[in-house]
Write a structure and sequence with these properties.
This protein is an alpha/beta fold. The chain has helices spanning about 35-45, 65-85, 115-125, 135-145, 175-190; strands at about 5-10, 50-55, 90-95, 125-135, 150-155, 170-175. It has a six-stranded parallel beta sheet, sandwiched between helices. The mean pLDDT is about 95.
Length: about 190
Amino acid sequence: MSELSAPGIFVDKDGTLVENVPYNVDPDLLKFKPGALRALAALAARGFAIVVVTNQSGVARGYFTRTQLTRLRDALARRLAEEAGVRLKGFHFCPHEPDAHGRPTCSCRKPRPGMLLEASRMHGIDLERSWMIGDTLDDVEAGRRAGCRTIFYDSGGETRWRMAPLRYPWSLTTDWWDAARLILAQAMHR
């Protein structure tokens, strides 16, 4: 990456940025997690590119269409801009279904790093100065595989506690503002 590359905040959508409503594509049901807007505004103000990276197997399962997901993306981006002054740099999603054991069948489904790598290339994001924030260990692993630091946002979303070296987060929190303060403090020391 060039020196002009920006650091990024890769954030999982369901259970991390917004309340988890399974397979939701209704913009009226979007409810931000407490503190998320304030935290993302502070991070964006310090030059971090904000990118959503989300597994959306509902597309492959036929629960909703890409068009419906695009409308949700647009509503999410509009609300981030209106309510927090945050410009969403990217919204990347994996539309694929996992296999019968819950493992990815593609390179983009987390815990694989495909969405983060694609976003880095598309948006000029420096992965070494970036962070992945998510509420599952698959989010943590995807971030670590991409070369980011990781924060496990413990919202109760993790149900499979299979620990392995790539699944240990750099930090753990239950509070968005704590995550932002940690990231900003680390950015000062780099």
